[in-house]
Amino acid sequence: MLHIGQSLIKYDNPVLVSKATDNSKLPQKQTEPKKSQLPPSSPTKDEKLKNLQQPTATTEDILNSILPPKEWDENGQFWVQQVSSTPATRLDVINLQRQARETGICPIRRELYSQCFDELIRQVTITCQERGLLLLRVRDEIRMTLAAYQTLYESSVAFGMRKALQAEQGKSEMESQLKQLEEEKKNLEHSVSELKAKCEAIEKRENERRAMDERKHAEEIAFLKKTNLQLKCFFLNLYKVQSHMSGTQSNISETGTLLGLPAPSDVDNNHEVGSNIRLDALGPLVINEDGSMSRITNWDNMTESEKTNTMRVLGRRNKERLNNLKVEGKSEVGR
């Protein structure tokens, strides 16, 4: 089919009319002379009366009289295309505008501007060839700039899409890692709370044990002090016995000073000091090997010479046993 140039006038679809019935199929207005298709400039009174007497013409007839139908031959066939009698709507106006946008990127507007610019170049080239060539360079430069911008736009869009996809992939990984870290944080917090409770329990138990140990140590120290005092008194009594047998007081005073005890004169022989040993003059004391003390029972029946000899023997024996007891006492203290 022959392509008809585009026009702003709206036509109906073409209708095929055979050449054999061409004269019968064509509307009556087409068989009339061409002058009938032209509107009368100044109809006379008779013509007006004649038109009033004729039946009312249809809209299609009036449109065909104003805008004649298009006729053409194609492959031995005769085609006719009449003007459309359908009223125009807003949609038709939008379709005629080809939906070209006033702002932004619009290929339709770009095409129209390119055609307009090419037409200007053509007209200018007819008048002056140099100006036409200069405008041609301007057009090529503009096209190159637009092509560069388009390439940059496409590459930036592709880069943005790639980065968006990478961000989505990284986002899922980061979300899973975040959940894992949150779980680990909860576990660590639970462990910290358990360790704090255990630490508090251990600290409380150790405080109680330390208090118990301190109390036990205090009792041991008191017991040792008491034992030490008893031992001091015991050794003091031994030295008193020795001094009583030897008749000297110098060793007793020095020993009492070293032991931190009161002087022998301040101690009554008729009282008990620490170890509950009576210091009366019933007879000399004898220090046994086990450290115990005893008295001679027949002291009163002895003569003076016997008493003197007994005192000398007892003095040496008691001194040796006392030294032995001192050595054993030091070894016990060292242990």
UniProtKB/TrEMBL annotation:
Kindly state which keywords UniProt assigns to this record, in alphabetical order: Coiled coil, Dynein, Motor protein
Residue ranges, annotated region (Disordered): 20-55
Where composition is biased (Polar residues), the residues are: 20-30
- Pfam families reported in the protein's UniProt record: Ax_dynein_light
Q: Which residues form a coiled coil?
A: 164-205
Q: Key word Coiled coil present in the record?
A: yes
Q: Does the keyword Manganese apply?
A: no
Record-level Gene Ontology MF annotations? dynein heavy chain binding
Q: Which domain of life is it from?
A: Eukaryota
This entry carries the following GO cellular component terms, namely: axoneme; dynein complex
Q: Which PANTHER family match?
A: AXONEMAL DYNEIN LIGHT INTERMEDIATE POLYPEPTIDE 1 (PTHR13183:SF0), AXONEMAL INNER ARM DYNEIN LIGHT CHAIN 28 (PTHR13183)
Q: Which family does it belong to?
A: Belongs to the inner dynein arm light chain family.
Record's protein name: Axonemal dynein light chain domain-containing protein
Species the sequence originates in: Rozella allomycis (strain CSF55)
Q: What is the lineage of its organism?
A: Eukaryota, Fungi, Fungi incertae sedis, Cryptomycota, Cryptomycota incertae sedis
